[in-house]
Amino acid sequence: MVSSQIACNIGLFPHHLKRLLHSYGKGLEKAGVYVGHMSFIDVSLKLPLTTYFAYLFGGCIRKIGCRLRPYETTKGATDRVIQEGMDTLVDAFSGKRDKGEALGEVISRFEAVEITGERKPKAPVSGSGSWKAVTWMRFAQKP
Asked: How many angstroms separate the CA atoms of 113 and 73, rounded?
């Protein structure tokens, strides 16, 4: 039985999260769920820094890809570079290679993507209904 020192069932969250990961599958059933002190005193200082840089680099790859994709001359080249870049960074954050060298390699791959010099019109999406417009645009593009 899971115990809790607070009035709600917060003690059940790790169990529920583990069940969600297991039911999703696709390798996530092998993931562990951290159950420790709320202060995270038993986690090394390297972990949050590494996690931060993983999210930062992944976000930068996505942003660069979104900016290059409309201008690529070879359709799918940007998506290929994104996938290769993510694989490279996974190796780097797994400790198989240096993070700085991996990032430099990813950047050079992006620089090698051939793009057109044309300028395309930009349309801002703002306001309270912007999430609806973005959702509609995503679904409208799918075949």
From this structure: 8
Quick one: 126 exposed, middle or buried, by C-beta within 10 A (0-12, 13-18, 19+)? exposed
How do residues 6-55 score in pLDDT, each as one tens digit? 556 666 788 888 899 999 989 888 888 877 776 667 778 888 888 899 99
- Contact between 10 and 4 under an 8 Å Cβ cutoff? The reply is yes
Rounded Cα gap, residues 98 and 105, in angstroms: 11
* Residue carrying the six token digits 């790859």: 61
- Round to whole Å and give the CA distance between 118 and 49: 39
What are the sequence ranges of the domains in the chain? 1-41, 46-120
DSSP annotation of 138 reads H
Helices (H), 1-143: 13-24, 46-68, 77-93, 99-112, 130-141
> Do residues 115 and 75 make contact, with C-beta atoms less than 8 angstroms apart?
no
